[in-house]
Description:
Blueprint: E1 2-4, E2 7-8, E3 15-17, E4 33-40, E5 49-53, E6 60-64, E7 68-70, E8 85-91, E9 97-99, E10 104-105, E11 108-110, E12 122-123, E13 132-133
Antiparallel strand pairs: 1-7, 1-11, 2-10, 3-9, 4-8, 5-6, 12-13
Amino acid sequence: MYFSTLLVLAASTLTLAAPAVKRVTGPSPDDIFIKSFTYAGSGCPAGSVANATDAAKDVLTLIYDDYVAQIGPGTMPSDHRKNCQINLDVHYPQGWQFSVFSVDYRGFEALDPHVTGHQLATYYFSGNSPQVST
């Protein structure tokens, strides 16, 4: 019994919301980009996540080499559940805010009859309490 997930995170062109003061023009697309990312968790040990950004640095693709959860003979309870927390450092002009436009997950699972697997993603912005899960 084996469950594995390959996750691809894509923050497409960042959607801007106007600040409290109305502006006629928006910031240059060159002023909005993903500066860096970090990751940690039982499903993504150090050195196990490959990444690529597009030329505009507004789309980040992550590929997980060790994101595998499994059950069955010979497995430990820690093998049954895996997690990975991704932290993005996004650059954007003062007075503006951004949101995640889309996220795409792709993966593989092999489950015996009557065995179920679940994938859960939870999103939040640092400093804010509200979270959204899918």
